Amino acid sequence: MGGLQWKRRVRGMLTLLFVSVCLTMLISHLLWPSITDLTEVEKCPACYGTSFCPAITGGFLTLHSFGAFAGFVNILGSKNVLFGMLGNQKVVLKKLGHTVELEQLDKMICKGAGLSSSCHVHEAIWQQGDLLHSMRQHVASQDSSLLLCPSVANLECLLSSVLYKTKGTSTEASLANIWTTLMINPEPLLLQVLQEQDGWPVTKYMGACGRVVVEEYAGEILTSYHNAPWLQRVHLAHQLLIAAHNFTDSHPLFGFYLTDISADNIAVDAQGKLRFVDLENVIVVDKNVPNEDRPQSWTIPHVSETFDCEGCFAFSSEDICSHRMSDHNFYAVCQHLLSPLAALDMIPGGLLHDMPPAHARVSELVQKCSESTEPSGRLRAAQDLTELLAEVLQQHGYSSMQPKSPSCSLWDGCLEA
C-alpha cells in the first residue's frame, strides 16, 4: 500500500511539474513571442513594408525585459506593443492595432476580392481595385483616424515622401503597403512625412517588417514629470507650445491637428527632449486647396470651443476643416496639458501646477490660452506665453535647449508641382 501511495505522489508531482512547465512556456510566449511570428511577413504586400526585415532575420533585434509591461498589455489584448533592443538601442515594436482589428482587416481584404474570410491576403490584396482611389475615400471620411480635408486631391503629395523612400519596392507593392497601414493606423506614414531627423517633435520611425513597425524608444511618458522641478516643467511646456506651432504652421502645404493629445502620448528622453509618440488620430488640413474647394470661412482662423471641466477634450473636425488655420493644437496643449483643467487622472493641476508667485503672468497667459473664445485670442496668448517661457528659461540657462523649427525639404517636388 505504501508503495502505491508513493507512486501516486510521484505521478502527481510529475503532473504538476508538467503543467508548470507548460504554463511557464505559455506565459513566456505571450510576454516575449517570436519576433518572426509577430511579423506575419507571409501576408505581404498586405503589410506595412519590409525595410526592417533584414535586421530581424539577421538576429539584430531582440525582445527585452524592459518592455515586460508591454507584454502584459499584449496578453490583455490592448495595443500589441512590445519593447526590444537593436544592438544597444532601445526600440518599440508595434502591431498598430488590436488582434481583432487585424483580423477584421484580413476579412475586409478577402471580402473585397470576393473570397472567403480565410483567403490568402497576400494574393487578395491585388484584387482590391484602385488602391489610391480607396485611400482617397478613406481619408475623406469623418470616421477615418487620418482625415485629409477640405479636399483629398493632394493625397499623393502628402504621402510622397513614403512613396519615394521605398527603394527596391515596386509602386504597386508600395501602394499596397501604404493602403494596409492606412486602414489600420496611419502613424508610420505620418512619421515618414514629419520626420524626426528633420526636426519634427516625433519619435523616429525605423522601418517595418510585415505587420510590425519599429520605432525608436523615446523615453518616459510626460506623466512621469508631473512632480519634476518647476523649471524643468517650464522647459517641457515651452517645447509643447513650439510643437503646437510647428504642427499647425511650419509645413508649407498642410496643417496637422492632433486629436488625441494626452500626457501618456508624449515622451521625454534622457536629454529632456519632448516627442509625440502616438500619431494615430490626426486631421490634416490642405492649406493650398483651389479657390473652388475653399469653404466660406476659409480665411478666418478657427476658434476651438472650450469646456469648463477636467479632461473634456471636445472638437469638431468639420469646423477645423472649414478654416485654413485652427487654434486646436494650442487649445489641446494649454487646456489639456498645462492648465488646471487638465485630466485629473493624467496630470492633476496641469503641468505648470504650483506656480511660483513671481511668475503670476505665466498663470494668466495659460488661462487665456486655455479658455479664450475671442478671434485669434488663443493664438495671441499662446505666442505671448511661448515668448515668456523662453525668457524664463533663458534667465536660468536653458536657452541652448530650445527646439529648432523643423525642415520641409522633402516637399520640394510638391511645391514645384
Distinctive features:
43% helix; 2 domains; 11 strands; 417 residues; Transferase(Phosphotransferase), domain 1; alpha+beta
Question: What report would you give on this structure?
Answer:
- With 417 residues, the protein is of the alpha+beta class.
- The protein has 2 domains: 39-217, no CATH class; 220-404, Transferase(Phosphotransferase), domain 1 (Orthogonal Bundle).
- It has 17 helices and 11 strands.
- It has helices at 2-31, 35-39, 53-57, 68-75, 99-112, 121-124, 131-140, 155-158, 160-165, 171-184, 187-193, 230-250, 317-321, 328-338, 360-371, 377-395, 412-416, and strands spanning 61-63, 81-86, 89-94, 146-149, 205-209, 212-216, 220-221, 254-258, 266-268, 274-276, 282-286.
- The protein has a 5-stranded antiparallel beta sheet.
- Helix 12 (230-250) runs antiparallel to helix 14 (328-338) and helix 12 (230-250) crosses helix 16 (377-395).
- It is globular.
- Residues 179-371 form the FAM69 protein-kinase domain.
